[in-house]
């Protein structure tokens, strides 16, 4: 059986600064009509920042949807027409006031394909130094930086302070890389 659905129509429900929401009418593989609510997003980057002491950088900030402070890897939305690696450079400057001599793409993935098309570009950054000229942070963005070791990062997952997929993915990747280096 072919699993592809056929889009019959689409209606924009909401168009905001970060997301757009559409309601689609589709024809399912068995010939039935169904509705799909889809969140459209331009895409984002996240970056595992590792210093020369083998610590990773986390950004602590309030997340209103969760009603709590979370600890996350630096991340940000890709601006229209911006190359994802340039987004990493911009976000490192704005959020953590660092530049990296080495930035490498690890992988890409969709954050929640059941209802959103947000594509995340996961990078790792090494060989860090302070930025020469800092860009302003986004309005309303209040951040606290925290350097942690791998065991400390794993403890933050266990405590629920690291609770988002991008950061858990970064920590697991970091752990796997350390395991591979120690073979």
UniProtKB/TrEMBL annotation:
<keyword id="KW-0378">Hydrolase</keyword>
<dbReference type="GO" id="GO:0019693">
    <property type="term" value="P:ribose phosphate metabolic process"/>
</dbReference>
<dbReference type="InterPro" id="IPR015797">
    <property type="entry name" value="NUDIX_hydrolase-like_dom_sf"/>
</dbReference>
<dbReference type="Pfam" id="PF00293">
    <property type="entry name" value="NUDIX"/>
</dbReference>
<dbReference type="GO" id="GO:0005829">
    <property type="term" value="C:cytosol"/>
</dbReference>
<protein>
    <submittedName>
        <fullName>ADP-ribose pyrophosphatase</fullName>
    </submittedName>
</protein>
<dbReference type="InterPro" id="IPR020084">
    <property type="entry name" value="NUDIX_hydrolase_CS"/>
</dbReference>
<dbReference type="GO" id="GO:0006753">
    <property type="term" value="P:nucleoside phosphate metabolic process"/>
</dbReference>
<dbReference type="GO" id="GO:0016787">
    <property type="term" value="F:hydrolase activity"/>
</dbReference>
<feature type="domain" description="Nudix hydrolase">
    <location>
        <begin position="39"/>
        <end position="170"/>
    </location>
</feature>
<dbReference type="InterPro" id="IPR000086">
    <property type="entry name" value="NUDIX_hydrolase_dom"/>
</dbReference>
């Amino acid at each position: 059986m072919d699993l592809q659905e056929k889009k019959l129509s689409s209606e924009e429900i909401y168009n905001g600064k970060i997301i757009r929401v559409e309601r689609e009418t589709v024809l399912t593989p068995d010939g039935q009509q169904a509705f799909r609510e889809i969140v459209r997003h331009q895409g984002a980057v996240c970056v595992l920042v590792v210093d020369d002491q083998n610590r990773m950088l986390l950004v602590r900030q309030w997340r209103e949807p969760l009603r709590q402070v979370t600890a996350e890897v630096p991340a940000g939305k890709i601006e229209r027409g911006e190359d994802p690696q340039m987004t990493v450079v911009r976000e490192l400057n704005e959020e953590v006031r660092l530049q990296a001599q080495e930035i490498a793409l690890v992988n890409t993935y969709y954050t929640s394909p059941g209802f959103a098309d947000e594509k995340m570009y996961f990078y790792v950054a090494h060989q860090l130094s302070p930025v020469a000229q800092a860009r302003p942070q986004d309005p309303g963005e209040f951040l606290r930086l925290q350097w942690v070791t791998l065991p400390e990062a794993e403890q933050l997952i266990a405590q629920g302070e690291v609770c988002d997929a991008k950061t858990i993915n970064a920590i697991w990747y970091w752990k796997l890389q350390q395991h591979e280096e120690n073979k």
